Amino acid sequence: MGLKQSLHKTKLKYEGTKMAPAFNALHTFLYLPNETTHNGTHVKVADDLKRTMNMVILSLVPCLLFGILNAGYQYNIQIGEVSKAAGFFSLEFWNFSNFSIGAWKVLPLVVVSYGVGLLVEFIFAIIKGHEVEEGYLVTGMLVPLIVPVDIPLWMLSVAVVFGVVIGKEVFGGTGMNILNPALTIRAFLFFAYPTWMSGDKVWVTGAVDTVGQPDAISGETILGSLAQNNGFGDWSLMDQFLGFIPGSVGETSKLLIIVGALILILSKIGSWRIILSTLVGALSMGLIFNGVVEMGWISESSKFYGLMNVVFWQHLFIGSILFGAVYMATDPVTASQTNKGKWIYGFLIGFISIMIRVFNPAYPEGVFLAILLMNVFAPTIDHYVVEGNIKKRAKRLKVKTA
Fold first, then answer.
1. N or C, which end of the chain has less CB nearby within 10 Å?
2. What is the pTM of this model?
3. CA dist 366 to 160, 288, 329, 348, Å?
4. Dist CA 173 CA 123 (whole Å)
5. Which of 121, 81, 128, 131 is nearest to 101 (CA)?
6. Per-residue pLDDT tens digits for 249-260
7. CA distance 357 to 353
8. Contact present, 147 and 168 (Cβ < 8 Å)
9. pLDDT tens per residue, range 276-318
């Protein structure tokens, strides 16, 4: 008997019981549902929500694989096993040591994220008697990509429970939440355990636990260095673009994020309006800060000078602004729904992100907080866009009938 038949028999056995949602979830994840609609008119499409989520996960896989390699690579750089000058086509980057070290640190984050998150989803589905929803398929992949590589697994577990329950389930589950669950998890980690989410000792594996480690290990990111007015360090522009820099697991390679953006845009899953307007907003704020420096309104000794002096377009190469614009801001549940609203929503995310980055040196990566803030205001933006459209139509009708 095949797997499909076995699952179907098990599903029938538990039909009508509280455990039915659990078996239905596994069955529909692997195979198309075997139920059909019987009444009314329905629009038939080639995909469903699970398949849409799987496409987003597919676009994230290159970032995950590169993040695994880069985690081991950054560690080996710090202990002197590989040269910092090794590039993308160097055997020093593609060696098994980098992959094994990175996999040992990153894959447990993925397992814990999915294991704990789906367990909470199953518990709520069984208690409330509804089907297991697909929203966590993407959240479970995003969470490991936006945290430091050495975050303790128990902290991640607590944060995932908080994010799924408070960020989603209390609002009614998938499609009803007003906050992005993955960002809710990261915000919880930042405010509950700030020393594990910021500073210069969290972004390279082995840098936090200094027992038996050389003093030379440092997990400082480019943003952290700029916030201390120490410049870009030894990291070149090409390093920043390709991703050979310390940072969150999945946000370092801008090249692979762009590839993921193209997949989402071409498959019509991600909104190009939100992505483009977020980048325009970030560039606009960067230009304003560059203007402040050029006018001499801020001294070089100021704690804000390092980040203000960054060339406006280079803000897209450092930190998580690009990752946030592509994978977080475009969340169809928490983002604005109207076309005009998407432009406003994205622009404000980019604008506020760079503002937080510059004015809060203790937390130079502001994109995640900016997205959460705009998640709250997205319904308000759409409300005023719709109201404005109604008034415009009413005015046009009045002129026509006059």
1. C
2. 0.86
3. 21, 17, 13, 12
4. 12
5. 81
6. 999 999 999 999
7. 6
8. no
9. 999 999 999 999 999 999 888 888 778 788 888 889 999 999 8
C-alpha distance across the termini of the chain, in Å: 74
Alpha carbons within 13 A on the beta-carbon side of 82 = 24
Please, which residues have CB within 8 angstroms of residue 181's CB and are 6 or more apart in sequence?
Answer: 135, 136, 139, 163, 164, 167, 168
Distance CA 351, CA 353 (A): 6
Question: Position 72: which residue type?
Answer: G
Residue 268 pLDDT exceeds 80: yes
Q: Which tokens sit at 389?
A: 């459209």
Residue 67's contacts (CB-CB under 8 Å, 6 or more residues apart) are 102, 106, 145, 249, 250, 252, 253
Find, among 124, 200, 114, the residue nearest to 157 by Cα: 114
Chain position carrying tokens 């009708």: 397
| Rounded Cα distance, 109 and 115, in Å | 10
Structure tokens at 62: 């290159």
Residue 402 tokens read as 């006059």
Q: Could you count the other beta carbons within 10 Å of the beta carbon of residue 326?
A: 26
The one-letter amino acid at 35: E
* DSSP line for 284-353: HHHHHHHHHHHTT-S-TTSTTHHHHTS-GGGGGTSTTHHHIIIIITT-TTTS--SHHHHHHHHHHHHHHH
Q: How far apart are CA 180 and CA 332, in angstroms?
A: 10
State whether residue 193 is helix, strand or coil: coil
- Is the pLDDT score of 329 beyond 70? yes
Cα(29)–Cα(307) distance, integer angstroms: 45
